[in-house]
Amino acid sequence: MKRICVIGDDLVAGIGDPRALGWVGRVIARTRFASAPAVMPLAVPGETTAGLAARWESEVNARISSSDTLHMVVAVGAADVPSGLSTPRSRLNLANIVDRARERGIST
What is the pTM of this model? Predict the structure, then answer.
């Protein structure tokens, strides 16, 4: 089965969306697939890239099996700014997420 995990913060969760679709729901609703994938938004509102880097792999592991084709979207917001994380640290956190996903054969 094809699975798409979308990891991120408020943007993924759809906070404040009166239709409760959020960014993920709106993109999926407008995307054509040969066969419908299982789409899993894995959001923690207000999360920094450091928090995301610490949790994404266990969240994804809990939702996949070895026979799945897995894709992952990394959708971060602005939580790093008020938390005081520097731009280089944020970039490193994102690079580590993408590198680890690549090592596992997960397309991002």
Answer: 0.90
